[in-house]
Amino acid sequence: MIEIAIASGKGGVGKSTVSATIVLAAARSGKSVIAVDADADAPNLHLIFGVREWEWEKSYVESKVAEIVQSLCTRCGRCREVCPYEAIHVDEGGRFAVNQVICEGCLTCSLVCPERGAIRLLSAESGRLRRTTTSYGFPLVSARLNPGRPNSGKLVTEEKSMAKELASQDSLVVVDSAAGIGCQVVSSLAGANAAILVAEPTPASFAALKRVFRLTRHFMQPAGLVINKHDVNPGVTEEMEAFARRKNIDLLGRIPYDDAIPKSMAVMKPVVEAFPDSPASRALMEVAERVMAIVDDWQSWFTRFRPREPEPYRPIIIRPEGLPGD
Amino acid sequence: MGTVKVGLAVEDDSGLDSRVSSRFGRAPFLAIVELEDGEIGGVRVVENPGASARSGAGIKAVQRLLEEGVRVAVAGAFGPNAMTALEELGIETVELAGVSVEEALQRIRTRLQGQ
């Protein structure tokens, strides 16, 4: 099994378009492939593949919220004073109630509540975990978070475990990661055999690319780069390519700016399916074919692009003044 | 060299046959192995508190290893936070995955002999 994570640091630069093309190309060539949408805040692979219903779905519970048991509450109001999130309010009837969207489940309220059992902790649904077989024949694992629920590396790990259960020894797993370099993205990259980075030639995307690239180096992963909309800013495209050469990142291809991409999203199809002859589709298919070649001859690509030296990503530790340990 | 405790992130709870996980923080279990003069003295598999953590999985796993008095940590990959914490604590890291605990210990024996 080979697991490839698609990441970009910055959002909206084409991760899902690239992921969808690779998955589709693999499925068309008869390969066993599983798509994982690891962006639970803004999942969209199911929209690209025109998924309208899920074969399997479950509630994803990992957070807790407090609830005030009205029959035991004496309305002393101490919980409201101490709540660090100001999540407790008084309703029109003078009853104390917890706003469960704001509540973080810290239970500070129950520590000060003088009435035994008046505050209890409930499990809250953070989101949904779901799976289906797309009309293109491959499985898609996806998740979505409810508003205000924090993003979660644990959820991504569950999605990847589900994909592994569906995978066989020679399957390809494509993980479409979230934007940023946070917990979700760390979980998307961790354990992946390689990363494909997607960027567009803007200073913002270039800066984000460098940040997410450092994370791939931390994990000692070989990386490839796809430059989307390369023709809108050729100068930055050149700088990005020079960066890729310097860092031994495999330049997998450039995609031209093409309004076939937004048009394909409107009809809920991958662009290579909806507008196969468009310039972007042709470039995307070339990228996907290169990725298929890499997967088929994994060892030689891995040897060539594997980082030579570990470059662990170390957060800077700032100690309180006067404490020993420096 | 005396007794050295090694903590390995593992996929299952099968003693020395447990498979070393590709990830540290979110591995389901941690195998704690006592090595006495290089020989395996005892193995215990405990739940990894990082596996069920919403965030900060790596740090929770490090904390567990610290409670166990582990000097060497083994997993396929360590996240940025786990790596920093282990380094600060002087716990050595070994990146290795997909083999049994027993085989992992064989492979890193020479490194352990330096402990």
Tell me the series of helices and strands of chain A, N- to C-terminal: EHEHEHEEHEEHEHEHEHEHHHH
Helix/strand order of chain B: EEEHEHEHH
How many strand elements of chain A? 11
Largest interface: A-B, 21 and 21 residues
CATH class of chain B: Alpha Beta
Structural class based on helices, strands and sheet pairing of chain A: alpha/beta
Strand percentage of chain B, roughly? 25-35%
Mean pLDDT of chain A: 93
Which CATH class of the largest domain in chain A applies here?
A: Alpha Beta
Radius of gyration of chain A: 23 Å
**Low-confidence segments of chain A, ≥5 residues, pLDDT <50?**
none
Give the name of the CATH superfamily of chain B.
Dinitrogenase iron-molybdenum cofactor biosynthesis domain
Our count of domains of chain B comes out at: 1
Radius of gyration based on Cα positions of chain B: 12 Å
Account of the protein in words:
The complex is a heterodimer of chains A (326) and B (115). Chain A has 326 residues and is α/β, with parallel strands linked by helices. Chain A has two domains: 2-51 and 134-305, 3-Layer(aba) Sandwich (Rossmann fold), CATH 3.40.50.300; 64-125, Alpha-Beta Plaits (2-Layer Sandwich), CATH 3.30.70.20. Chain A contains twelve helices and eleven strands. Chain A has helices at 15-28, 45-48, 78-82, 108-112, 153-166, 183-189, 203-218, 234-246, 260-266, 271-274, 279-296, 298-305, and strands spanning 2-7, 33-37, 56-68, 88-90, 96-98, 119-133, 139-145, 172-176, 194-199, 223-228, 250-255. A nine-stranded mixed beta sheet of chain A has the order 3-6-7-2-8-1-9-10-11, sandwiched between helices. In chain A, strands 4-5 form a two-stranded antiparallel sheet. In chain A, strand 10 (223-228), helix 8 (234-246) and strand 11 (250-255) form a beta-alpha-beta unit. In chain B, helix 2 (80-89) links the parallel strand 4 and strand 5 (92-95). Chains A and B meet through helix 5 and helix 6 of A and helix 2 of B.
